[in-house]
Amino acid sequence: MTSAKEQEAIRKLLVFLQEWDHAHKAARSRILDNFIKSNDGKTEPELELEFSQGASLFLARLAAWLRMTYLYTDSTCLNKLLKSIGIFLSAASGRRYLIEFLEVGGVSMLLEMLGLNHLKEEDKRESVKLLQLVADAGRKYKELICESYGVRSLTELLATCSSAEVQDEVQVLLDSLGRGNPKYRSQVYKGLVAVLPCGSPRAQQLALQTLRGMQDPVGEVGEGPPALPEPLLAVLGSGHLEVQHQVQSRRVSLRHVSQKANSSSHVTTFPPFSHLRNVSKRHSHFPDVPPVGPTALCLGEPVPAYVQQAAAAKAIGMLAKESAAVAEEPVQLKAMHSLMVAVGNQDHALSQRHASISLEYFVRTSPFVEDLVRKAVGPTLFQLLKDSPETWYTKIDPGQAEELASSMMASPKDMARMQPTAAFSGLLNTAF
Asked: Which superkingdom heads the taxonomic lineage of this protein's source (predicted)?
């Protein structure tokens, strides 16, 4: 027989549940406020003590109300409802609460909420946080999220959401789904790659940041970086510094691409210097920025193609520095001519600077390039390049710049002919 104390506890639980069942929206809102205030951070034993071993009965009512309300515009108390469910899912030793929530379709509800336009972004953030609690429970729960088309829902939210806080939560969850989840790791990787062409700089930055951490694990399972060159090269044109930083930090991935992802495309020639002047005139509506001294990097807002050109010139140098074997490829593909063209682009000083630095590296490491560049620019300019590559472009006058842009440089005849790889041919095709 139960004791009088236990009977009283059960009676209080039944009264509480009846109060919930008969309460209207305002009353339920107050109940949720009190529940969150009194139970946040409690463990499973503490919650069971609070509800006289009947906490699951209240969780079931919360899940049922969530199912009944989240699809409608008037989703009253949704944020409080999600936080209340989170108290159960985050309770230490409370795995059974998680299972009970999943058994009533919890994951499907949470994922569907991410795509509903009428929901507030703070509600979507709470949904993502609950999904993170599910993912934290282990591999099979990560697989459940992925099997429910979670990667697609999360990457779409990352690309379209305007809230930085929501995007941060999504990035954390995608990073979690990409680790300790070998069955769906490639799916997460491809989903992040699909985010790169979106119009949100922050989404691009977070996707690149997550991809950077996933690159080596994905490579280890023999899948390589799927479909990465084109999207990664596309974001080279971003004018946002945080995105550019993440692109440059992806040099390990670019190295894998340059070594493994063969491409049959041919290197195209960068347009002549006269075309550069025409491009500059067509974009003359960009507001001018007063120069700051002779080494000012830009005299006006850069044309997107120039931003991409500058980033590509920098990336070529970074790739070449990875190893001597990798450095041979841009020489074979006549990248030196492309770098010379970029040095001659006086409409965008950042292109000139990065191209100068990359060109100096090849001059320093390749006798063939050293000889060609010396003949192309003459002994005076050549010595200035070796002495100070960072400021070399400031010593070049318009006539010399046009000569640089029009000078053709052959590849070494004694070097074995190689097939262009996706990284270098992509950089040259896209930006030069």
From this structure: Eukaryota
Q: Contact, 316 vs 342, CB < 8 A?
A: no
Cα 228 to Cα 125, 180, 233, 423, 426, distances in angstroms:
29, 22, 8, 9, 11
Residue 407, sorted as left (phi over 0), alpha (psi -120 to 50) or beta, turns out to be beta
Give the pTM. Answer: 0.71
Round to whole Å and give the CA distance between 347 and 358: 19
Map out the domains of the chain as residue ranges.
305-410
Contact call for residues 211 and 192 (beta carbons, < 8 A):
yes
Region of 279 on the Ramachandran plot (φ > 0 left; ψ -120 to 50 alpha; else beta): alpha
> Which pLDDT band holds residue 278 (cuts at 50, 70, 90)?
very low
As a whole number of angstroms, the distance between CA 345 and CA 391 comes to: 14
pLDDT in tens, 386-427: 999 999 989 888 888 887 767 655 555 544 444 444 455 555
Least confident of 1-10, 101-110, 205-214, 386-395: 1-10
Sequence length of the chain is 432
Q: What secondary structure, in 3-state letters, does 327-360 show?
A: HHHHHHCCHHHHHHHHHCCCCCHHHHHHHHHHHH
Rg (CA), the chain: 29
H or E element that contains 47: helix 44-50
Identify the CA nearest to 239 among candidates 284, 275, 204.
204
User: Which ranges of 137-200 does DSSP label H, i.e. alpha helix?
Assistant: 139-147, 150-160, 164-177, 185-195
Residue 286 has what pLDDT?
34
Is residue 213 within 8 Å of 201, Cβ to Cβ?
no
